[in-house]
Amino acid sequence: MATQETQEIYVRNATETEARGPFNTAQVADLAEVGQVTPETLIYDAATEQWVALSTKPELMAVVFPAKKKLSLRAKEVQALNVKDDTVKPITVDDMMAAAEGRTGDTKDKADPTIARARAARFGMWGAILALALAAAGEILPGSAALVSGEGAQIIAQPLVILGVIDLVLAVLLGLGMVNLYPFVRFRAALGLGWLGLTFFLEGQPQPLLYAVAGSAGLYLCTVLTSLVPVLASIAAAVCGMGLLAQHFLTR
Asked: Model pTM?
């Protein structure tokens, strides 16, 4: 007697007159996987010499349509973040940002130097803007009458007013983010140091000379330094120097 694996099986549908086969049980199982054999498919029973439904053969059904194991998902306990714990401090967005920027004890040696340089450069830009605005105020206000008159001769007679207008324009443009004007700002710092410094030196005025040196040097360094501590020192020199120089122009 042929075993179940090697027995010859003929199959056909109820509406068909021609049989297909012979197949072994593995081949019938393959046909079932692609939908060509169903439990209603007829198979030829050699013992009874009749066509019977596949579903009437439990042993063959078990091979052709094996019962599939059901998958069960076991519930997994998920522990939420930021759960109040007396021993663990919740993680906040500020903590994550500080870690990314290297401002924590664990990540300070992994800080991205590009971020630190960009922050220092931004401080330098705002320091330069403030210094230029203070300088413009001290240079324009004493000669504002000449500027309002619009007469070229009076304006030329007040060179500080022209320098003040330049300072004001540079401050506004830097405030708009036009850092490509830094070469002009450096030239302005050098001009102020040379012209005003020489003027105060020849007039024997040491205090305004010191203000001009500090303000011009600080303004220049604000545009070239990218380390935070030196930039802050440059800002202090630029703002204090230009502020005191503006006060000198307004009270003389």
From this structure: 0.55
